[in-house]
Model the fold of this input.
Amino acid sequence: MAHSKTTRTETGRLSKNMTAPATRPRLTRQEKSERSRALICEAAAEIIGEYGYADATISRIMERAGLACGTFYAYFDSRQDLFDVLLPMKGEEVLDALNAAANSPLGIIELEARAFLDFFFYVQQHPWFFRLLHEAHVATPEGHRRHVNNLLVRYRKLLGRHHDAGEMPSYDKNELDTLAFLLMSARDYVYSHSVARSDDAAATIRKAAATYKKFVAHGLRGAAGAETGPPSPPATLRKTPRVRGRKPKKP
Done:
C-alpha cells in the first residue's frame, strides 16, 4: 500500500495528499552483473560502428558504457575476448528479433519477404551492425565463423521445415545450404550497396523488398511457370564447330 508523503508543491506549499512514487525493486547481484555486461557489449558495438575494431579501445568502450575502465576485466580478459563474442551475440539478437515471423504459419515466400524487410528496419535502428560484420573476418575470425554458422543453422531449420512441407519441390535437401548462403548475401549487399547509399532509404527498401520477393518466388526468370532447365555449359567447354574442308584450330 502506498503511503502519503509530505512534499513541496510548485507553489512552495507542503502537501500531505501526494502519494510517494513506487520504488523500483533492487537488482540482484546477478542482474547487476548481467546489466553491466550488456552495457559493455552495446557500447562496444556502437564504438566499432563509429571507429572500427582497430580503434575500439577499452577506454572508449567503457566511457560510452558509463562504467569504470577496471570493470571491463570483470567480464572479459582482453579486447579480443570481447570481440570474439560480440558479433555472434549481436547476430543472435537480430535472429531473435526476426524469430516471431519465422514461427508464424506463413509460407516460405511471404516469410522470407517479411524477414528481408524486418532485417532492414533492424539495421536502420542499429547502424553499427554492418561495420561490426564486415570487419569481423579480419578482426575476429572466430567470431565471424560462429556468426555465419549460427545463421546457417537457423536457415537450415527454416528451409528444411518448408521443404518438408512441400513448398520447395524443385530443390533437393542437399541444396538448402547453398540457398541459405544466397539469401544471407542478398540482404548484406542490397543494404550495403543500395539502401545505405540512397537519398530515400524508405523508398529504396520498399522497391528492393518487392524485387526480392519476386526473386525468391520465381528465380531469375521472374515469373511463375517460366521454362526451367539445366544451365548451358560455359563457352570454354562447348565443342568447337567443325568447318567443312578445314580442321578446327587447336586452342
Notes: Residues 1-16 have pLDDT under 50 and may be disordered. The longest strand covers residues 7-8. The domain at 31-76 is CATH 1.10.10.60 (Arc Repressor Mutant, subunit A).
